[in-house]
Amino acid sequence: MAVLLVERSDGVVTATMNRTERRNALDADLFEALRALFVEVGERADDRALVLTGAGGAFSSGGDLTPAAPSGDDARTVLRRFGRTAQALFDCPKPVIAAVDGVAAGAGMSLALGCDLIVASDRARFALLFVRRGLALDCGASWLAPRRVGPGRAAELALLGDWVDAVEAERIGLVNRVVPADDLAAAAHEWAARLAEHAPIAIGLIKRSMRASLTETFDEALEREADDQMSCTSDPDFRSRISAR
Predict the structure, then answer these.
(1) In Å, what is the CA distance from 89 to each residue of 114, 127, 211?
(2) Phi and psi dihedrals of 220, rounded to 5?
(3) Looking at the structure, do residues 212 and 179 belong to the same domain, yes or no?
């Protein structure tokens, strides 16, 4: 049985993590399948937006800790492999929406944080459980969480490892929207369909610019924005949209 189910329709790619017996815990096979998909979606012109979700009423319970834990150089190799998946998600120029139902814990929460938008069901729960396992953060959580909810709230989530329900997650800005569980797929795909209609070059530049702004001066941001606009206005997609108005 495939650990990752992939469907495509009208420019929207839906990727469903499918290890239901482990609440979609991330093992080496699933990490690699996700990495390959993120790269593929970024390269395929027909793929315009990606929805990432989980089967069986869970997003992902985190890294699969059931196999014997590697040590030394083997452990570093494994962690770097997991990091490459997080990097591939970060580098994907297409918009990615996490549709979170049930638990998003540990590396599963890191994966959700790496997405551009998060839609959660009203029964979703989030936790950076690493500290409860005697582990440090991974899969980019130390970089992503402070940028999503601010340094103080991120420190609370990371150091205490407490569960956050959907209502609280929306209140603190961890998720963008909370919907009834039965409406989760439709809500995520509504946004994805809207994103798929936008010019890919504009989407990619907006994604890049929002991240760059966190380390730029205002003058640098203005200069970069001018460069970005020049790239967009030379795109045939821009000219066709303007002429169609």
Answers:
(1) 7, 20, 14
(2) -65, -40
(3) no
